[in-house]
């Protein structure tokens, strides 16, 4: 039982960055603009958060340092998302091509600046950069299982961003279902002609979609560098941004579906590490997450194909 | 051919924009270098001119080429990037964002190495067979993405990226378990036998007869797209999918074949890496070349005739960055930044401050 | 009628598009409070341009619009909405995954500080629905409603924004008779409550059933207007279509029709809308043209696609820009799309460029298309020239059967004549042609037999000789129906019933 809870906790930790990015991608997708730059957004956010804490102004109190980094990371992601928005909405660049190009730009820029500013091409490991705090609830010593669930393995609680992810998913649901801005965003994405005829400012909605997705993906990147690990390394995101995209497709563009898919992809990663204790070649295990993703993407289409074939034979 | 026709061929409509983007990006590079370096101008000039070979007058009065090795890397990288650029270009013309060139390159290198190491038949057949094995491996891997897209509607961008990861693991598994050279200092295959290797044309480089592969591949792709029925189907499917379906064109087949042919070229690029450039396959061959191929294709605006120029530019930038890093305090990754920046500039169809009429 | 009660007046309103087309010319019209006014005309008569000017989507180039006596000019729909004009569009613009209530209030939702007030929205919608007799369930999803119900939601949308002048663009076009009745009753109730309704339509019955007054447009001009009490269907039809154009092409067949080349029996496709197939039987013989008439959206396009899918049947598709051409590709690339697989255009997978070039040039000169050359992107040509290439391509494979959908839509008169001549030449060479067209003049001029489709079924089958457009009108709207009508070659031709209402 304890082992199951431990696996669950590891799963949540692994899924958190993907979930943030997927929520961001879902936001922009529902607004009618697919954001393939999630990978680059996470990367610049992670990088900026760490670099900002390394180069923080000397007078900054220690307790504020992680939040300073978090703010820097989010700002960086917002700027990159703004660049994407301007390139597509003002300069008429193709949205997917622009997203891919910005991913490549982010990858090159972060490694370059890492080398220049931190003096090390691999990572910032030699600096001791902080993590965002964890939240824990005291007084649960009498209930070990509950204590484990709420306070994690070492009893120090869960990282604030891990707790924040499901909270943010809920807030996103509130936004989309119960606010006027959310309704306008969804209308702009689902039926732009109807939205335009109703007087909704389409361009503003598209900016909102892209910038909002940048902010959410940025949170995922900040968690990677100030929670999951406490450093920045080159290519830290390792394809999570694209996994988030896959989660949107697998989850059929619905909030619960996307959350479930993000958890699934997190699980695949955790499973691979757990299976590492078995006597299997590590490369086979490393294949597991991408194969899971492919299976998840192909399965719905396969089922539909199957049912239509059956109908034809009937 | 008239002068006008020649100039249209050599300077297609997007060329001016591409050249302007390159110019602006290089200037931006200067600014970026100025932020991080103590001697920005010198670093920038080395970035731009580093790969140039020198002709020096030696003491005995004869001319010698110096720094040919660096220029050699530019040439060999041009071949690799040209093939990779073409590998991305073909699916793109069918409107498929297939990013699987990386994985196809790895599997192509693996396939070629398998044949190269195992072949015991007539020596002259080793290289052609290895090349064919590489192309077959890459082509099948590319077709896999296409089939998943066509049969299951799976998004080709994500599928091809996932297949990249799987392909890289297959590569690593094969080298670690079956192909490992016990005598090597680091995990790698044994050196490929001479019958399965290319002799270098420039000493200490990977420049080989494969230099011809780049222009031949460009010609082949240009002929494919412009002169064959398959190329026609690919182009029409990409330009107007609704029209293609109504006119009865085999849209699915065109889609899958476009990705398969892209895989063939990426596999050939892998063959080039293994048999010409490196001579053996290390387990830690760096992924990411496929993305540079994407950059080449984007810079070339998906026109085959511009691929070699774009590949040469990127290869030059990369070598220049290495030269710059060796002589100054600027990291060579700035080349990556400039490469991506050029694309960002090329992509913009119009500038927001210039209000054109719609 | 006193001046004060005139809500809307148009004085000499005109619109000339930048490309020279004169869509509206000197239109005078007035609409009183509490009046339902029908604006009738065929496709292309200028009705939609007029509506666009009233809704701020286009600007007039001549004349004036007066609301309550004051001249107005709307630069955008938002301005028109503020002035109290509401548009119920031809194609519903509802967000499918939103509920009725959310769609009605879209863009002007009741909210407190950004938070939606769903219950208030639902209540408002219920109140409106009850007040004007428009039954609607606020919680139903818009995507699950029938077309008639969706249209009612569109009306509620306009009413929610405070419209007191409703523009209904072809509202009854695709409704079933029951739904249309419900709509008209609702309109009557709205009018009785003091709203003005401008009903844009091409159905004569709308005029007679629900409108107080009417105006007929033809080719951009007003040709008749008056009180619907004093109108008769025959007279109206004559105004709408004008006298049948004297055939400018000699449509008499050169030989009697021969063997049946295309036979279809019992075609059924259920789609839940009027665009379906309901047990269609048809035959077409070599050497004749079968015309399919009907209001758009009653299954003709579907029938054409089904027939074309049978193989060996050439098709001129309805949506030229989407299905007929690839606008960014060259003329040559477009021209060979159906014939590129065989010699002389290609040999063993290799395109023969000289042959393609020659064939395209021949096509261009034969069809009188002025272009820079085969390499010019086809999207740069005019609609008429593009359609010529589309037809040329369809005919290049020397088909025995051709299905042509709206072949002269959006095509200038000269090109249209040319295309029609070509169709007749194809017919004379022994091919069978199915002609789907919304242009009744064209159908009657070219066809030997005419079948009328309504809601996916063939409701009338006539010999074309001596048939007048107004005769077809009743069948097209579903008011008249031949029992067991079918377009079979052996169907007895029943004398068409004159619509004498």
Quick structural gist:
The complex is a heterotrimer of chains A (314), B (358) and C (501). Chain A has 314 residues and is mainly alpha-helical.
Name the descriptors.
heterotrimer, B: 358 residues, mainly alpha, 2 domains, two-stranded antiparallel ribbon, 14 helices, C: 501 residues, alpha/beta, Rossmann fold, 3 domains, six-stranded mixed beta sheet, 16 helices, 22 strands, 25% strand
Unreliably modeled segments of chain A: 310-314
In terms of structural class, how would the helical and strand content of chain B be classed?
Answer: mainly alpha
The H/E string of chain A reads HHHHEHEHHHHHHH
Tally of individual helices of chain B = 14
- Which sequence of strands runs across the widest sheet of chain B? 1-2
Radius of gyration of chain A in whole Å, from Cα?
Answer: 21 Å
Number of domains of chain B: 2
The average pLDDT of chain B is 87
Computed CA radius of gyration of chain B, to the nearest angstrom: 21 Å
Give the DSSP E fraction of chain A (strand runs of 2 or more residues). under 5%
Please give the share of residues in helix of chain A.
over 70%
**Widest sheet, order of strands of chain A:** 1-2
- Taken in chain order, the helices and strands of chain B follow as HHHEEHHHHHHHHHHH
Biggest chain pair interface: A-B, 49 and 45 residues
Oligomer designation: heterotrimer
Description:
The complex is a heterotrimer of chains A (about 325), B (about 350) and C (about 500). Chain A has helices at about 1-30, 40-55, 65-90, 95-120, 145-150, 160-180, 180-190, 190-195, 200-230, 240-250, 255-275, 280-314; strands spanning about 135, 160. Chain A is an all-alpha fold. Chain A has one domain (about 1-235). The longest helix of chain A has about 30 residues, at about 280-315. The radius of gyration of chain A is 21 Å and the shape is globular. Residues about 310-314 of chain A have low confidence and may be disordered. Chain B folds into two domains: about 15-45 and about 305-350, no CATH class; about 80-300, no CATH class. In chain B, strands 1-2 form a two-stranded antiparallel sheet. Chain C has three domains: about 5-240, 3-Layer(aba) Sandwich (Rossmann fold); about 245-310 and about 400-500, P-loop containing nucleotide triphosphate hydrolases (Rossmann fold, 3-Layer(aba) Sandwich); about 330-400, no CATH class. With about 500 residues, chain C is an alpha/beta fold. Mean pLDDT of chain C is about 85; it is low at about 245-250. Chains in contact: A-B, A-C, B-C. At the B-C interface, helix 9 and helix 10 of B face helix 10 and strand 18 of C.
């Amino acid at each position: 039982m304890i082992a199951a809870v431990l696996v669950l906790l590891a799963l949540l930790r692994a899924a958190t960055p993907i979930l943030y990015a997927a929520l961001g991608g879902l936001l922009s997708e529902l607004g009618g603009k697919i954001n393939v730059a999630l990978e680059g957004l996470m990367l610049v956010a992670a990088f900026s958060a760490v670099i900002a804490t390394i180069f923080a102004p000397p007078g900054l109190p220690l307790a504020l340092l992680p939040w300073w980094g978090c703010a820097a990371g989010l700002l960086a992601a917002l700027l990159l998302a703004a660049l994407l928005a301007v390139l597509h909405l003002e300069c008429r660049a193709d949205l997917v091509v622009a997203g891919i190009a910005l991913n490549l730009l982010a990858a090159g820029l972060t490694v370059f600046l890492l080398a220049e500013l931190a003096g090390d091409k691999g990572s910032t490991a030699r600096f001791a950069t902080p993590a965002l705090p964890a939240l824990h609830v005291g007084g649960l010593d009498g209930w070990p299982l509950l204590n484990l669930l709420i306070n994690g393995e070492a009893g120090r609680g869960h990282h604030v961003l891990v707790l924040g992810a499901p909270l943010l998913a809920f807030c996103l649901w509130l936004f989309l279902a119960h606010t006027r801005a959310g309704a306008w965003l969804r209308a702009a994405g689902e039926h732009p002609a109807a939205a335009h005829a109703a007087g909704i400012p389409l361009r503003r909605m598209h900016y909102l979609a892209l910038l909002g997705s940048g902010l959410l993906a940025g949170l995922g990147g900040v968690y990677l560098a100030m929670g999951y690990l406490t450093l920045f390394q080159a290519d830290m995101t390792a394809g999570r941004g694209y996994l988030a995209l896959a989660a949107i497709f697998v989850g059929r563009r619905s909030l619960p579906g996307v959350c479930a898919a993000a958890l699934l992809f997190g699980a695949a990663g955790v499973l691979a590490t757990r299976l590492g204790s078995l006597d299997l070649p590590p490369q086979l295990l490393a294949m597991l997450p991408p194969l899971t993703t492919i299976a998840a993407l192909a399965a719905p289409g396969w089922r539909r194909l199957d049912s239509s074939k059956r109908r034809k034979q009937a | 051919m008239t002068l006008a026709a020649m100039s249209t061929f050599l300077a297609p409509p997007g060329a001016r924009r591409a050249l302007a983007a390159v110019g602006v990006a290089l200037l931006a590079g200067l600014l970026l270098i100025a932020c991080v370096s103590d001697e920005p101008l010198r670093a920038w000039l080395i970035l731009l001119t580093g790969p140039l070979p020198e002709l020096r007058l030696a003491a005995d009065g004869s001319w010698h080429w110096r720094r040919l090795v660096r220029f050699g890397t530019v040439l060999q990288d041009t071949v690799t990037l040209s093939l990779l650029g073409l590998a991305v270009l073909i699916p793109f013309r069918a409107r498929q964002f297939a990013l699987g060139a990386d994985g196809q390159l790895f599997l192509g290198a693996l396939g070629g190495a398998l044949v190269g190491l195992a072949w015991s038949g007539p020596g002259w057949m080793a290289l052609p067979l290895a090349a064919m094995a590489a192309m077959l491996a890459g082509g099948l891997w590319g077709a896999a993405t296409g089939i998943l897209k066509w049969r299951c509607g799976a998004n080709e961008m994500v599928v091809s990226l996932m297949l990249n990861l799987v392909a890289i693991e297959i590569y690593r598994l094969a080298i670690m378990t079956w192909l490992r050279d016990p005598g090597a200092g680091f995990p790698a295959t044994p050196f490929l036998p001479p019958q399965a290797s290319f002799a270098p044309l420039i000493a200490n480089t990977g420049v080989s007869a494969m230099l011809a592969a780049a222009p031949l591949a460009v010609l082949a792709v240009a002929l494919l797209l412009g002169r064959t029925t398959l190329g026609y189907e690919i182009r029409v499917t990409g330009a107007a999918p609704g029209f293609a379906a109504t006119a009865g064109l085999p849209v699915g087949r065109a889609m899958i074949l476009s990705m398969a042919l892209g895989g063939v070229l990426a596999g050939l690029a892998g063959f080039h890496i293994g048999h010409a450039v490196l001579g053996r396959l290390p387990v830690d061959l760096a992924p990411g070349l496929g993305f540079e191929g994407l950059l080449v294709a984007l810079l070339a605006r998906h026109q085959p005739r511009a691929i070699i120029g774009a590949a040469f530019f990127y290869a030059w930038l990369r070598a220049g960055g290495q030269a710059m890093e060796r002589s100054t305090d600027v990291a060579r990754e700035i080349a990556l930044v400039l490469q991506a920046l050029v694309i960002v500039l090329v992509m913009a169809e119009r500038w927001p401050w210039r209000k054109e009429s719609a | 009628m006193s001046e004060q009660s005139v809500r809307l007046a148009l004085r000499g309103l005109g619109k000339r598009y930048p490309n020279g087309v004169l869509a509206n010319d000197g239109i005078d019209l007035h609409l009183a409070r509490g009046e339902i006014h029908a604006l009738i005309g065929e496709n292309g008569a200028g009705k939609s341009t007029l509506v666009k000017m009233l809704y701020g989507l286009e600007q007039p180039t001549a004349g004036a619009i007066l609301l309550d006596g004051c001249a107005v000019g709307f630069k955008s729909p938002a301005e028109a909405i503020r002035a109290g004009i509401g548009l119920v569009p031809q194609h519903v613009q509802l967000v499918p995954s939103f509920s009725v209530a959310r769609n009605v209030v879209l863009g002007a939702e009741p909210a407190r500080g950004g938070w939606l007030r769903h219950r208030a929205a639902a209540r408002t919608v219920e109140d409106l629905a009850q007040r004007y007799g428009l039954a609607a369930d606020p919680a139903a999803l818009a995507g699950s409603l029938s077309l008639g119900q969706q249209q009612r939601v569109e009306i509620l949308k306009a009413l929610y924004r405070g419209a007191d002048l409703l523009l209904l663009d072809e509202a009854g076009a695709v409704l079933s008779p029951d739904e249309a009745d419900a709509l008209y009753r609702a309109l009557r109730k709205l009018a009785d409550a003091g709203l003005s309704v401008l009903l844009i339509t091409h159905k004569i019955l709308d005029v007679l059933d629900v409108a107080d007054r009417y105006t007929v447009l033809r080719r951009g001009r007003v040709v008749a207007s008056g009180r619907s009490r004093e109108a008769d269907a025959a007279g109206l039809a004559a105004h709408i279509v004008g006298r049948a154009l004297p055939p400018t092409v000699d449509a008499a067949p050169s030989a009697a029709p021969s063997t049946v080349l295309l036979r279809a029996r019992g075609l059924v496709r259920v789609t839940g809308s009027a665009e379906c197939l309901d047990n269609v039987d048809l035959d077409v013989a070599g050497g004749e043209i079968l015309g399919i008439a009907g209001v758009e959206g009653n299954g003709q396009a579907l029938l054409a696609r089904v027939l074309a899918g049978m193989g060996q049947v050439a098709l001129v598709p309805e949506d030229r820009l989407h299905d007929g051409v690839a606008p960014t590709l060259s003329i040559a690339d477009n021209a060979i799309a159906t014939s590129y697989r065989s010699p002389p255009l290609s040999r063993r997978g290799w395109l023969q460029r000289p042959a393609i070039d020659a064939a395209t040039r021949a096509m261009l000169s034969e069809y009188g298309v002025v272009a820079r050359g085969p390499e010019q992107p086809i999207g740069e040509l005019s609609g008429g020239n593009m359609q010529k290439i589309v037809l040329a391509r369809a005919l290049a494979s020397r088909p025995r059967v051709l299905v042509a959908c709206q072949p002269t839509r959006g095509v200038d008169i000269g090109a249209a004549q040319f295309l029609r001549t070509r169709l007749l030449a194809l017919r004379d060479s022994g091919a069978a042609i199915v002609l789907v067209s919304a242009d009744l003049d064209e159908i009657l001029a070219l066809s030997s037999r005419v079948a009328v489709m309504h809601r996916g079924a063939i409701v009338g089958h006539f010999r074309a000789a001596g048939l007048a457009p107004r005769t077809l009108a009743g069948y097209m709207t579903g008011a008249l129906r031949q029992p067991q009508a079918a377009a079979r070659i052996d169907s007895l031709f029943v004398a068409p019933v004159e619509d004498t209402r």
